Amino acid sequence: MAKGTIVIDEDRCKGCELCTTVCPFDLVHIANHFNAKGYRPSTLVDLEGKCTGCTLCARMCPDVAITVYREGA
Amino acid sequence: MAKILMKGNEAIAEAALRAGCEAYFGYPITPQTELLEYMSRRMVELGRTFIQAESELAAINMVYGAACAGARAMTSTSSPGFSLMLEGISYIVCSELPAVVVNVMRGGPGLGNILPSQGDYLQMTKGGGHGDYHTIVLAPATLQEAIDLTILAFDLADKYRSVVTIIADGMIGQIMEPVELPEIEPPKRPERPWALTGAKGRERNIITSLYLEGPVLEKVNLRLQETLKEIKANEVRYKEYMLEGAEIVVVAYGTAGRIAQTVAKEAREEGIPAGLFRPITMFPFPYDRLDEVAKSVEHLLVFELNAGQMLEDVRLATRDRVPIHFYGKMGGVVPSPAEVLAEIKKIASPQRGER
Hints:
The complex is a heterodimer. Chain A is built from two helices and four strands. Chain A is an alpha+beta fold. Chain A has a single domain (about 5-70), classed as Alpha-Beta Plaits (2-Layer Sandwich), CATH 3.30.70. A two-stranded antiparallel sheet of chain A has the order 1-4. A two-stranded antiparallel sheet of chain A has the order 2-3.
């Protein structure tokens, strides 16, 4: 399995939760804090390093707030 | 024309300038800010007027001034800002001037939060400010409808020389959807013999909302009421979905109406004869048509993102002749279609058991 990770530009996020519904490993969740706009942004919770960098979350994001990194790609 | 993907706030802004809005005044407030942001760029590009005012009070009074001068003027805000604008809106209505005000509602009361809500329904449809007045209130449920209604808002404001408000919410403001925009038009200026344009070669025009003589102000009020009567006769708009054979009809508007459309479809798939009645003009409210619809159904379910505000109008329309149920969420909480469907099932099940 490819290894990957994502970086979420929190201040672009409006907390719509769409990314949380598409992650095949259920690694994207809504954070407990607020961003500059006042929304709860989404965040990656990947303690076991399961993210493969499949890009589904980034493709789903209507505000282009997610950057995907994939090892060796 | 090709469809493009736009955010609700931006779509409303682009629609406004394509409708010929030549003056925009506003003050940032989430979840409406992108509208102002978009205007700050596009209005300047087009050589029109954009001013970020120092407050909502200033913004609405700038709209008042621009409208006096005959411009197609607008402002936009969110709930707390709308409360601040009410004084100015009342002045504009009394002065019989056209203006468009967009309220992208957020959770209240107070500063509340920035999530979608419909808590300003009564404030917006019953007047809200002081004195006897109503504004025309348009409720979009999709971004395409938001565009179409924004354009309509400017035309209605001109037609009735009155304030037209758009009742949107944080969801409509923030979602992105493919939309089709009309061609861009040069600023429209319908014939405005009443406008303050410098009284060269004509009688001077006076625009005011101060009438110290009782009988004079009474006459102004009677004229405003005549206009409202005309609006009620001509401008009622609504949409109906799957009402054929419907036994349970959901009454919902805006974002709630959008959710209810999915719910009605899902209910039908499960064999529950559900339908949807979605008012588009919240003022004038479609009283007569809803009363007609209610005659052939067994239950109405009013669904709103508030504690039951339109519920009052539904009861007025139907005089409680059918059982009316209510489901609402407050504080910016938006229920999933499944939660609303569960409400429908609760209503449907005892009745189904009897058969």
